[in-house]
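quick one, 598 residues, struct below
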Amino acid sequence: MVPEIKEALMKTGKRRFDELRVKGDHMNNEQVLKEGKGELIISRRPKEFRVTDFGPCSICFEWMKIDYLHKHHKRAHSETYVSDSTKLQSKKVIQLNSDREVGRVNIEKQRNVVNQVLEIMTRDEVKVVAQGDELICALGESWMRRNFGNKKAKYYASQHMRLMAKFLMNLRELDCPSLGNEVQAQSLWDFLVPSKYDLVVAAAVQLAYPYMDDVDDLRSPSNAIKIKYDILKVINEKWARIQIRGNPDPEEAHKCDTFLRLMNIKWSERVTKMARTVLVQRSFNKEVEIPSPEDIKTLTEHICQELKRLNLEEYSDSAYRRAVQLSQARLVLYNKRRSGEIDHISVKQFAARNTRLADIDTSLLGDLSELEQHLLRSQDLMTVRGKRGRPVPVLIPNDVKMALEFISNPENRKAYGANQVDWLFPSKGQCCARSYDSVNQVSCECQLKSPQRITSVSMRKYTATLTQMMNLSDSQLQWACDHLGHTKAVHLNHYRQLSGYLERVQIAKLMIVHDMNLTGELKGKSLGDKELNEAVLKKIQDEITGSDAEIGNQEPVPPYTINFNYDQTTSLETIEIFENEELEKPSHKTKVRQRWKD
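---
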């Protein structure tokens, strides 16, 4: 440093002295963080100060609030970038590089698997805990490798890493409430021991956030269920690292085995049973919002009209964005696909779509109706990745073909700035456009009764529910399940909702047949047969006539009132309740016990 000081003193200019000052401040701050004492020298100190909120710039090493680093990069290093790749760095990447400079990231820079997750994770207290723990980073790497080939793998890994980081924060708070989360250095490794098993259970229940003191009513019971499997992954990772060491400790390995045995014995009755019971009870009273058929019709007609109005002859950014928006909405509504499946369609998948008829399809043309032949010739078909890596079909109707050709045109993509992105539906950034936002935006353009109900999940439930009315055969129902990308059991148990019409009309007819002993007379008949309807109607004709007359002559029932003998000086515990005098309870005779005699 002495030659640099001499050189700086010999030259005039403030910039050289500022560079030297920043380097000295950075060396001091590194020493303070290493020793855990001293004073950090930063460019500006706010009123509220937390150490984890500040870090150095990865180019000039000036310390400032990490939230402002991306603005500092644009202002101070716009002309002196180290490399072209630095220009493409996002705000989250800049913050990650700052944390890496001061040792807050507990992984090597070469481990690109986990770095992909940290680059898209929002920087907050949860991320600081996640990136600083060895086992949590190993959990993220495990989820990345498990979802290899899935373009959304980093988002799945981010969810599990953040959930485990919140779990670790709960452990630290329960273990030492007075110290706080920031100054504690206990890692997840230290808590996964048999002596702290009760603490682990309490942290898992707290992760579900009980309302006040009522543990039976959890806010997020699914978190308590999911965290179990992540804990098992982490404890197995700990055991594996103990064995890989040059000199493994048999006592630590035995503690891991004991902890796993405690999880298998105690976890289900202390955590899982309670969480699953709450989920089941909530499903009873959960209101399922299915779109209105009129809204679906209105929205479909609106999208088709807007696709016809698109000016695709001349390129413009607004026309390109509008084409992406309408195409995504049309494919989601027509195919009832999950929004993520439409989002991640690539240009290669669209280029490899099936536009011609196969030989076996051509041989079937003579046996098809006019409508079926039209559908077979007018629609294209492409296959995309569905849930759990399952290939699912996407039908391309004729009205959206021109818009998709416009979107996939290389010249248009280059003009839009998406020539380096593989997504068919690009955005201005490095990711894809969200079909959820496209459907929501297009729905708000129409005067719908309930536009908030138009989502990809509700549309799938809408299809599964209305197929009940069409009396599909088993093979036809299996075709519908294959298109939607789930099994028949999932279709019947999770997507298909209870229809009030079927229960109050069709099932009611079946119950009446059983009550009137008409089973033998109507043997072999279906619920829609005319003979069955006439037989049931004949049996309940008197009931229909009587009920109609009763409804017309029925007098209103006086309401049941409760009188409170209460004034301002009376406490709530001493309130006396008197029932209406007209509704008297029947008197009961008191029984006298008599002694039994022979």
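The chain has a mean pLDDT of 76.
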